[in-house]
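Letters spell out the chain; the tokens describe the backbone. To illustrate:

===
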Amino acid sequence: MRPDPRTVTTTHDVGVPVVAAQTYAGVVRRVMVDWKERGRTPLTDVLAYHLAAAALGTPDGVRTALVPVPSSWSARARRGTDLVGALAEAAAARLTEVGIDACVMSILKRTRRVDDQVGLGASARARNLHGAFVARRRAPLSGHRIVVVDDIVTTGATAAEAVRALRLLGHPVQAVAAVASTPGREFTKNP
């Protein structure tokens, strides 16, 4: 699993570039299922390199704030932790190790329960998630390059809701970064 941060899209649903280091298929899919569903949390360190590569952007001296998508309450209870938050922390550490000023700002929270997303299409996911996230009002994001981070981007509905919640409070999100994105759909490889 070599990071390949060339998977880019600028879908109108999300409103910002979406970068994923891998395609969610084959060995990447198996590793991520082991990490998420089988409790293999030591894989967080491996996956963090991929998320860091996707979140890299242009290292221009501006501090990068990684804003993780909040895990659902049921997923957090089942797994005993917020995996995406831990992944964001590990990715920020990898970026810092190579001289990129990065931090994690866990400023998004869920406002309500949502239905399980598995099996839902893009429009059903968007309806399911609309209004499900809110950002903290006094988040110290001024002067940061804001990147929403998630583990997998499928339809972009979760990313779009996170971007919406942050922009509602005037936080200018520059990108969404993920370890992997599902093959096909609006996600394409750039040369």
In short: Residues 83-97 form the longest helix (15 residues). The chain has one domain: 7-189. The first strand starts at residue 7 and ends at 9.
